[in-house]
Amino acid sequence: MKMTPDHWAYLTDYARSVFGAQDDHLAALRDASIAEGLPDIAVDPEVGRLLMILCASTRGRLAIELGTLGGYSGIWIARGLAPGGRLITIEPEPKHAEFAERQFVRAGVADRVELRLGAGLDVLPDLARELGPGSVDVVFLDAIKTEYPEYWTHVRPLIADGGLVLADNVYGSGWWIGDEADPTRNAVDRFNRTVAEDPDFEAVAVPIRSGVLIGRRMRAG
Ligand SMILES: C[S@@+](CC[C@H](N)C(=O)[O-])C[C@H]1O[C@@H](n2cnc3c(N)ncnc32)[C@H](O)[C@@H]1O
């Protein structure tokens, strides 16, 4: 059977109905964020669950997220952290940050989430000096898609042996990976290929929603 847009929509709905369970707070968070003027661009519940499972699979104690928005994905990641773990999430929009901080409290994860206000490329150099090489178990990229290759340059040395880089929208987002004239597509394609060809990492992108890249450091850099 050929994959058509209708089949894709069917599978997406099916995945949501089977794997998209979430608590009442998370289920209401999207509408609450839209009501406060935040854009409707958070990950979906099945992607959130994937992030939580992958984070838990590393027994992660330190995670970094680029692109907090309203805290939805951050809550999933925080729930996947090992006891005593910490998520540092980076967001330049004060309105998004303020909304997210309230959601971290409501979700009961505020004690393990630290929000850094600023643009990823401004915050990352200082964060890298502060944390040191090989110190981070999970990095989740979900900010500016054209900046994914530069984010990779900054976060790659931070990822611990056995740690993960995760990135959303690597098969498309409003655009589609097949549109070769699109600068966003080309930046994400460059990022995908760079991680795939990195001799210290193994990577694949799963076609869940708009595609999530999963890269694991297989040997110390
Ligand atoms: C797709 S949304 C993130 C969604 C969030 N991860 C979730 O699923 O709940 C992208 C976020 O990145 C933020 N952003 C924009 N420019 C950024 C930058 N230069 N560095 C980090 N985040 C940025 C936006 O304000 C927005 O909140």
Which helices and strands, and how do they pair?
Elements: H1 5-19, H2 24-35, H3 45-57, E1 62-66, H4 72-80, E2 86-91, H5 94-106, E3 113-117, H6 120-131, E4 136-141, H7 148-155, E5 159-168, E6 172-173, E7 175-176, H8 183-197, E8 201-206, E9 212-217
Parallel strand pairs: 1-2, 1-4, 2-3, 4-5
Antiparallel strand pairs: 5-9, 6-7, 8-9
The structure holds S-adenosylmethionine.
What does this protein structure show overall?
With 221 residues, this protein is an alpha/beta fold. It has one domain (5-217): Vaccinia Virus protein VP39 (Rossmann fold, 3-Layer(aba) Sandwich), CATH 3.40.50. The protein has helices spanning 5-19, 24-35, 45-57, 72-80, 94-106, 120-131, 148-155, 183-197; strands at 62-66, 86-91, 113-117, 136-141, 159-168, 172-173, 175-176, 201-206, 212-217. The protein has a seven-stranded mixed beta sheet, with helices on both faces. Strand 1 (62-66), helix 4 and strand 2 (86-91) form a beta-alpha-beta unit. The relative contact order is 0.12. Bound molecules: S-adenosylmethionine. S-adenosylmethionine binds at residues 41-43, 66-70, 72-73, 90-93, 96, 119-120, 142-144.
Note the main attributes of this structure.
seven-stranded mixed β-sheet; binds S-adenosylmethionine; Rossmann fold; single chain; 221 residues; two-stranded antiparallel ribbon; alpha/beta; 8 helices
Which structural class should the secondary elements be placed in?
A: alpha/beta
Spatial separation of the terminal alpha carbons: 43 Å
User: What would CATH call the architecture?
Assistant: 3-Layer(aba) Sandwich
Radius of gyration: 17 Å
Query: How many helix segments?
Result: 8
Quick one: biggest sheet?
Answer: 7 strands, mixed
Low-confidence stretches: none
Report the order of strands and helices. Answer: HHHEHEHEHEHEEEHEE
Mean pLDDT: 94
Helix content: 40-55%
